[in-house]
Description:
The protein is mostly helical. The protein is built from 14 helices and no strands.
Amino acid sequence: MDRLASLFSNPIKPIQAEEVKTRSMNAAATEEYSCEFGSGKYYALCAVGGALSCGLTHTAVTPLDLVKCRLQVNKEKYKNLGTGFKLTVAEQGAKGLMLGWAPTAIGYTAQGICKFGFYEVFKNTYAGMMGEENAFLYRTSLYLIASASAEFFADIALSPMEACKVRMQTAALGAFPTTLREAAPKIYAAEGITGFYKSLVPLWGRQIPYTMMKFACFERTVEAIYANIVPKPRAECSKSEQLVVTFAAGYIAGVFCAVVSHPADTIVSYMNKASGAGIGDAAKALGFKGMWGGLGPRIIMIGTLTALQWFIYDGVKVQLRLPRPPPAPMPESLKIKLGLAQD
């Protein structure tokens, strides 16, 4: 944390309370911003940021994801991360590490559109319904509910490609197609449309807690970093300094994300490999210890992934000149009620 603070070289400048700009939910577009905060264009461009954020990062870590999935469903063969990489390269060559990249790219791009785009929509909608004071007091609950709502729809978009990806990555060599154009028709011919959604419920079980932690932990960690580590107010930080905070908060959030969602992730991998297996069947076959297989590589993957996703998402918002209001300060009306208002 000391190293993080040292990145901010500018001295603290004294500011008066009246100089602090409060968040404006209805701020009009100016020369500084390309659109109005909360407008349809704003949400659409946030969705573009989400598409790039999730699509690029998940595709980039396809090799790690592949080995992680194989460890989850065949621990006896692949044993650990290093052995998993060695066996994969020995059996399929270096290109085998990118098996499943196409459904990964398509599926997680679609998921990112819904995850980040709908999060912004739900967060602002729910905040308006709660009122300014409650939105501040219960902001952690606001982040949790908004992210859960967004992820519900994001997983519906992801599920078909996730089913193809996991089946391609975990099937025995030669037992299942290795390209998306062959894998998707094969699943449809054997199981119909339900074959693409049979693991949707455990996918919700994995992704919704993951996303709730991802957004709530990130939002509150950003608050904490600015309040306790960064030696000057956010408004005085450059955009590059703000992106450093974004990356650090994203990595911290990612570690927690990996832990809370891992058992469900293992069940998803098992169900997509074992045709006809249900949630109960998968949990029984894996056992409690088995559901935690591959946690180490997943922490590495998800920590890095989440940090990069937030960095890319915030970077896209900077490049597209989107409004990036800071966390809302305590409303004056609430300060008065709590006796905190200054005369």
